[in-house]
Amino acid sequence: MSLSIVQDAFEAFASYDPDRISAVFTEDAEWLSPPGNATAVALDTTNHMVGRKAIVRFFAEEFPRLYVRDVALTFRGIHTDGERITVEATMAAILNNGNPYANDYCFVFELRNGLIHRAREYVDTAREHDMIFGGSAERC
């Protein structure tokens, strides 16, 4: 059951459908990504989203402005420990400037009552900056 909620979440993110995205998070969910990450910088948004509404807005409205097409996630490993799930994955996409994007991620999801309560995202921020800003941005 707990593994399926994370798989459902990634399918919901890819759909950009606010209702599907909302359905996988608790009302008080949090999403934390590295400070200064290139996605947050490029979209002029925070790296720490608090609340279901903020997370849904990000994945349904903001994320598609940068990652415009061919968004795909390849799972490298999924590890469960009760209400905690760790996902190793590679995300690929086409950026809004037409360039390809591919980077490795690690996500740690904490569940509560069968929904995602907290997500921590880890990513190679230097590689992300190079792909999004062409190597012109200061490294994290």
Question: Could you explain how this protein is built, in words?
Answer:
With 140 residues, the chain is an alpha+beta fold. It has a single domain (2-131), classed as Nuclear Transport Factor 2, Chain: A, CATH 3.10.450.50. It is 35% helix and 43% strand. It has five helices and six strands; from the N terminus they run H-H-E-H-E-H-E-E-E-E-H. The protein has helices at 2-15, 18-22, 38-43, 52-66, 125-133, and strands spanning 25-32, 48-50, 67-81, 84-95, 100-112, 115-123. It has a six-stranded mixed sheet. The longest helix is centred in the middle third of the chain and has 15 residues, at 52-66. The relative contact order is 0.20. Residues 6-118 form the SnoaL-like domain. InterPro entries: NTF2-like_dom_sf, SnoaL-like. It comes from Streptomyces violascens. This is SnoaL-like domain-containing protein.
